[in-house]
Amino acid sequence: MKRSQRAALLTLLNREMLKRGSWCGETHIQKATFFLQELLGVEADFEFILYRHGPFSFELRDELSSMQADELLELTVRREGYGPTYLPTSFSETYLERFPKTTARYIRQIEFVSDELGDKGVAELERLATALFIANQEGISDIEQRAERLVELKPHISSADALSASERIDRLIRKSRPLRISEESMAP
């Protein structure tokens, strides 16, 4: 995917997440993009590693900065005491109109991720994204084993929350299958 198409994809994701009540801070965009790639096979080509709060891409962080410089997104503080929110600029809709094929190709996947993750807070996003990372990167398909591994990697997450996240990931994997771009096999 070309950089301009990735910017369109992220602009569309930001818009759809905001519509569904997402805070749209960097963590929200990081996790939603991870789900687009790892759950739905969208080839945005960001490399994710397991980091402090779950899967994280330094390339994506750089891309978000570039999008600010290109005046596609702006950072704003919506509420004191919370991190900043990425908001689309007035130029962003005009920019999206330049990529009708990209938006048409990925809108269903973006809507799915936005529907499923848009109202989640950062703690829940961390649990869900890390559970998906474990399922895909470590190949752990058993719900209980995945939950145990999640607690091992993230000791601040309770066993009950880890199990809930692991179960939720299985449901999302099943629910997302008809929307997957690639035909790769997935856990559960």
Describe what this molecule looks like in 3D.
With 188 residues, the protein is mainly alpha-helical. Helices cover 60% and strands 7% of the residues. It contains 8 helices and 4 strands; from the N terminus they run H-H-E-E-H-E-E-H-H-H-H-H. The strands form 2 sheets. The protein has a two-stranded antiparallel sheet. The protein has a two-stranded antiparallel sheet with strand order 3-4. The longest helix has 18 residues, at 100-117. The chain is globular and about 45 Å long. The model is unreliable at 183-188 (pLDDT under 50).
Strand order of the largest sheet: 1-2
Report how far the terminal alpha carbons are from each other. 28 Å
Helix and strand sequence: HHEEHEEHHHHH
**What's the number of extended β-strand segments?**
4
Instruction: Write down the overall geometry.
Output: globular
The number of helical elements comes to 8
Tell me the helix content.
55-70%
Low-confidence stretches: 183-188
Main β-sheet: number of strands, strand sense, barrel status? Answer: 2 strands, antiparallel
Question: Using only CA atoms, what is the Rg?
Answer: 16 Å
Structural class: mainly alpha
On the 0 to 100 scale, the average pLDDT is 93
Proportion of beta-strand residues: 5-15%
